[in-house]
Amino acid sequence: MVPLMAEYMRIHDALFLEEPPTADFDRMLSGSTPVDEYVMTVDSEYPQFTKLMCAALREFNSNGKEIFQVEPYLENLLDLHDFFADGGRPDELNKNALMYLVYLAEKKSTGALLQYYQTAASRSFEMTVDAVKRFARTDAARFRLRDALRAQALSALIDNFSSSFVEAGMMHYPLKRLMERQAPKHTLVKSVFPANEVLQNLGQKGHLYGPGDQLTLLYIFHPEIAATERETLLAARALIYTKIVTKEELDTDITAYPHLQDELICIKATRGLSVNDCRRLFARIRGANTFDARQIVAEDVMGSSPHLGQLLKSGRHHFEDVKGQQNHEAATL
Fold it and tell me: What pLDDT is stored for residue 203 in this prediction?
């Protein structure tokens, strides 16, 4: 995504990153702190992504662009970690402070996540599905708070520039609505999805929201929604999706978009599953690692979609090869 994002960054005056302020950020931008050293200090979950992004940001900084780190929720979360590391207790938090709201959101969401892990390890499929739904609801509440805080902070800054690029992950789609409400009236807010452009260039249709993300978005936009069959289906599919999708950075040609293609394959593989299908598969892959789980689900998918099953099983995600094979078969017929 870095080269794709860079194309949009290049045409704006100010860049607002989706991350909390860090001590050595300005020194990294100026070149005083080496990128590798900076990446180690921020403890990045995806170091290769961070390195490539830092290289792009250095270029933009040298060209005179203003670059800011703006993520109030995560900034308060880091302060909260420091507070507890220094011996602070929850009952000592100021209940009127923003940090306390972040504490409550994190406590509920982390508690629900731990409950999900415990349930998924040994309890029934139905109980695990319910645990997925409970976590998704708490996660949605956390996203709503993050977006509200960030929209408020950004709205006070973007009016200082003629054009601004705001980095935001796909789960922060509601941020656009909040920005439209809070930004100065003359401001035009537009969402862009670079990944969608890649899908179109690859001749693929669809989106990159897995079933768990779809469930969370449902709760983000409809927090009071009553129990529906749709929720149960998405939660059941999410159990399978999270077991088969690649979690770590792939050491391969990034111009082939390995993660994007992997996610799309896993979305397609789970899209056709019923709740009963998920129940049957969950019993088989519950304790399996990602590779073994993919093989099991791939064999299951083979019957209805041989090409998709083979891609999932092999771990190779070359849609053009599959597309060419399908065209050859069609021409032969």
Answer: 81
Structure tokens at 29: 């931008």
Question: CA distances (Å), 65 to each of 6, 26, 41, 312, in order?
Answer: 12, 13, 24, 42
Structural domain boundaries in the chain: 2-70+157-192, 75-141, 201-332
Q: What is the pTM of this model?
A: 0.89
Tell me the average pLDDT across 69-90.
Answer: 97
